Amino acid sequence: MNKKDQYLHKKIKNLQKENKSLKKQLQIKRKIKVKLKNQLAKNIQDLNLTIVDKSNTLKKIENKYNHFFKLSLNLFCIADTNGYFLEVNSAWEKLLGYNTEELTSNQFFYFIHPEDQEKTQRELNKIKSGEKIRNFENRYRCKDGSYRWLLWTSILVSTENVIYATANDITERKLAEEKLYLSKEELRLILDSLPIGISYIDNQRRYRFVNRLHEIWQNSPRDQIIGKYVWEKLGKESYENQGKFL
3-class secondary structure for 132-187? Predict the structure, then answer.
């Protein structure tokens, strides 16, 4: 074999080696491609499962929200800091008679009793400053023109800049308190009209009630007698002489 043939033979061998190496690299690349394709498919499948799982979780949360917020007998609402309801539950319509659109399209001051608007604005300012409000009372107008007393708990969620609040209808309690007050006032007027001095003293010997003639007898207004010990008003000597009769 001459030199030329030897050179060609060597060249062919080198080309065969390179071809074999290229085939091997191509096989490796194909394996890598298949592996990446399978991994991508698995990642997509896992992502879909995660999305489905999160979607189911969100549905559960939404269902709990619907049961807690929308179906509650208590008054629940979300409002902005400008005085508008963003969302109310169905209890509002049942109590006041307004539908959701009517409640959310007007400032809530529109429904508040004129005498309660100033104090409600003060409480709203407190909420906007970050203070949580508990046991605040005001009156809301019903669609029929009557009013209901509401007891509020409210808080500002600063990250959303909205107010979350809940209210209870305490109208019956307020009516009972007013009735009791009127009964006490009526009794006081009756006792004040009697021609004798009358006082009520508790077991600690403190004045709890005195009528008008008792005020005159002690020469002191009622608010300076109620809560005082008997001996403080009579003097120790008089109390020692009269205490056994009280």
Answer: CEEEEEEEEECCCCCEEEEEEEEEEECCCCEEEEEEEECHHHHHHHHHHHHHHHHH
Please give the residue that has the higher pLDDT: either 50 or 96: 96
Residue type, 79: A
Q: Which amino acid is at 240?
A: E
Please provide the distance, in angstroms rounded to a whole number, between the alpha carbons at the two ends of the chain: 148
Q: What's the rounded Cα separation, in Å, for the pair 173 and 179?
A: 10
pLDDT band of residue 168 (cuts 50, 70, 90) is very high
Tens digits of residue pLDDT in 135-151: 999 999 999 999 999 99
Q: Can you list the alpha helix ranges (DSSP code H) found in the chain?
A: 3-65, 90-96, 100-104, 117-128, 171-193, 212-218, 230-234, 236-242
Nearest to 125 by CA among 88, 160, 154: 154
pLDDT tens digits for range 42-67:
777 767 666 666 666 666 656 566 66
Q: Which amino acid is at 28?
A: I
Q: Which of 66, 231, 243, 69 is nearest to 165 (CA)?
A: 69
- The pLDDT assigned to 30 comes to 76
Nearest to 108 by CA among 85, 80, 141: 85
The alpha carbon of 205 is separated from its chain's Cα centroid by a whole number of angstroms, namely: 45
Predicted pLDDT at 51: 66
